[in-house]
Every structure is written in C-alpha cells, then in structure tokens.
Amino acid sequence: MRKMIFAMLCLTVSAVLLGGCGGNAASDDGSLEEEESLSVVTTIFPEYDWVKEIVGENADNMELTLLLDNGVDLHSYQPTADDIVRISECDLFIYVGGESDEWVEDALEGSANEDRIVISLLDVLGDSVKEEELVEGMESEEEEEDEEEAEYDEHVWLSLRNAQVLCQYICDQLCEMDESNSELYAANTADYLEKLSELDAQYEDAVSAAARSTLLFGDRFPFRYLVDDYGLDYYAAFAGCSAETEASFETIAFLAGKVDELGLTTVLTLEGSDQDIAETIISTAASEDVQILSMDSM
User: Fold this and answer.
1) Which among 221, 280, 270, 279 has a CA at the least distance from the CA of 250?
2) Which of 64, 171, 223, 237 has the smallest C-beta neighbourhood within 10 Å, fewest atoms?
3) pLDDT tens-digit profile of 20-31?
C-alpha cells in the first residue's frame, strides 16, 4: 500500500512538472538563458559533505540539498512531494542505492529531466559491495530466513577507502558538468583524498596498537565495511539494516558470554541509542567495569 501511494504521488508531481516547467528560462528575445548554478540533491549527510568538500569556495554558487534531516533513519525514510520535485529538477542526484532506496526508482521514472546525472554509491563501488551477513549470536529477522535474493550492506560510506573512490567519482562527474570550475574541483578533491588517506593510516595505527581486535555491539551493526578494512572481528545484536529492536535472551546471553570470554571492557551502541540492550548485556556478564560507548554511523 505504501508503495502504491508513493507511485501515485510521483505521478501527481510529474504532471505538475510537465505542465509548469519548460527547461531553461527564455529571455525577451526568445533565446535560452544559461542556468547560473548547478543543482545537486543528496540523500544522506556523507554525500552532502563530500560535495561540499569537492566544490569548496564554489559552494555559494551551487544549490546543494540534503534530503534526510539530522536523526532521520535511512531505512524508514519516505520522500515528500517537495523532495520529489527537487529530485526531478536537479542536475545531479546522489543516493546510496540499497534496499532502503527502492523509492528512488519511482521518483526517477516520474521525471522528464533527461539531462540529470544520477549517482548510486553501490553502483559505483560495484563488486566491492558486500552482502549483509548474519554472524554468530546475532538476531535474525523472520522474513530474512525465507529470502533467496542477496541483500547488500548499504553502509558503504563508513569505509574511508570507499569514501575515496566515491569522492573521486563525484568529482569527475562535477568536472564534466561544470568545466569552468573543473580545476578547482580537482584540486579540492586531491586535498580531501589526502586527508582521508591520512585518517585511514591513523585507523591502521590504532588497530595495530590495540590490545583487542573484536568489537561488540549491543545494537544494530552498520560498520561491516570499516571492520573489514582493518581486519577486526565483531559481534552484534542485529545486522545493520535490521528493523528489530528487542533482543532475545539467547542473544543477550551470547553477547554477555563474549564480553567475559574476550575480556572486553566496552560494549558499543549507535548514536541516539537508548542503550537498554547494552546495559542488559553488561548486567548479565560477570566482568566488571564494562562501559558503554557510542559510534556514529553518520
């Protein structure tokens, strides 16, 4: 039903756009005026921030839109009519491309904008995109047990190495779209990639110097790409895209046992978590002085 309502919304917006938009504005003598700035629409904050880093001082001459407000969950987001209009009219649209973005297909089909460039992060990364995995002790969702089609982990932005690939690709597209500023975009991107590379090296050093190599999450786990980059192991209550919020006794007991077995001093949660599961894991474990810390999934 929700998908049907969304499709009807797209059709309505399309009718408005086709009836009220005629491309570039015409001057008094009938000639077309050049558009003064690019319009870029991004779904999540990392994409938005990458574009800002790439365009640098030219950001004031670009209409850059972030669709998901702070705290909005990618997995439950549904666009408004205004969002669909922005996507329909923009020059460049950047989205993740996973299962949570199934609404995008309808939004793009409902637009008559043939010149718009669309970037899917998962498509850019291709074969390096990982299937979502169910590790030992993790809660499984009932509907997933019967699924035959592979479900891919959407959280590609949480790898600094993925970020470098994606930023370079976005830069290349912007340079083609805005040749007059291509040198600026290329220089900004080179500087930013160097910063990402330096941060990647800091992560490598931190992992090498760490006493332990296992993370334990009393929460969803969207950091698959990050831990794989640095050879870390992990246990978690739920997979990264799970809609579950209640952990079974078996999951709590398993994770508490891992805290004791591995001598862990930290149970991790995501930003904004109520930390109930993490607190239950700690109270169930025999280990003392275990703290709760949060990691931000951006």
Assistant:
1) 280
2) 64
3) 443 444 334 433
